[in-house]
Hints:
The protein has a single domain, classed as TIM Barrel (Alpha-Beta Barrel). Helix content is about 45%, strand content about 10%. The chain has helices at about 30-40, 60-75, 90-100, 120-135, 155-165, 175-190, 205-210, 220-235, 235-260, 260-270, 285-300, and strands at about 10, 45-50, 80-85, 105-110, 140-145, 165-170, 195, 215. The longest helix is centred in the last third of the chain and has 22 residues, at about 235-260. The chain is globular.
Amino acid sequence: MTPTAKRPYRGVFPVAPTIFDDRGELDLAGQRRCIDFMIDAGSNGLCILANFSEQFVLTDAEREQVMHAVLKHVAGRVPVIVTTTHFGSRICAERSRQAQDAGAAMVMVMPPYHGATFRVPEKAIFDFYRTVSDAIDIPIMIQDAPVAGTPLSVDLLARMAREIPNVSYFKIEVPMAAAKLRDLIAAGGDSIEGPWDGEEAITLMADLDAGATGAMTGGGYPDGIRQIIDPYLAGRREEAMAAYARWLPLINYENRQCGLQAAKILMQEGGVIGSEAVRHPLQKVHPAARAGLVEIARGLDPVVLRWGR
């Protein structure tokens, strides 16, 4: 294992897309190439089965196929975070135990939610994470994201970090993320092992200034994100700011125009994978948006556009 694989986990842990063929079937050979590229491009670790992995279009059996294929292929080269989100406490705990047993370094879990209206109160959220923690021995990352529609107060997050043994990482991607990170670090102290940035690094500099030590981004250009986060964590803020200014147009285009398809588009363009297909009912981005993404990327010469050529 590399030094970045030791706790506390820091650096760039991008989300790996789930690779399909043109028929929409799992392409596990393509998945392995995707993983190899992401490691070669400098990922300090990886996350699989997240929302940006289209986890919501996979069957339970397919989730397990992808998880086992990736963890076996990574073989300890970098730590892997497995997303195990489920509304049911017991089911989420079982998924998390399976991930741990398969070799996951951490699990990422959103608070329980379903659709636009099914939510649970704070006590139930606390007990949910306690149930998951009781089933495993590896860290839990709480994903605090707008898609859940569940407000997670700083006080609740800090209390869970103090009182639930494995709750120690937090991916904050709500509006005013930097302010929330700063308040969380102040409230939770040493219990906050990993305050992390998310949302494709669109707020990365502000989040680093607030104390973030990790970033979970899209999977298309970890080498670019490393150019920002490495100098920042080494105390070279001006260098990090200059790199952020260079890469921000691409980060913005991914975040605002292409979303979860950005990584697949760039990987297909660079010969990493054979198909950039997403699963129905998701629709491919407009060809003009695809072309715009590739145009901006080419000006930055990311590894993804060279890796498979």
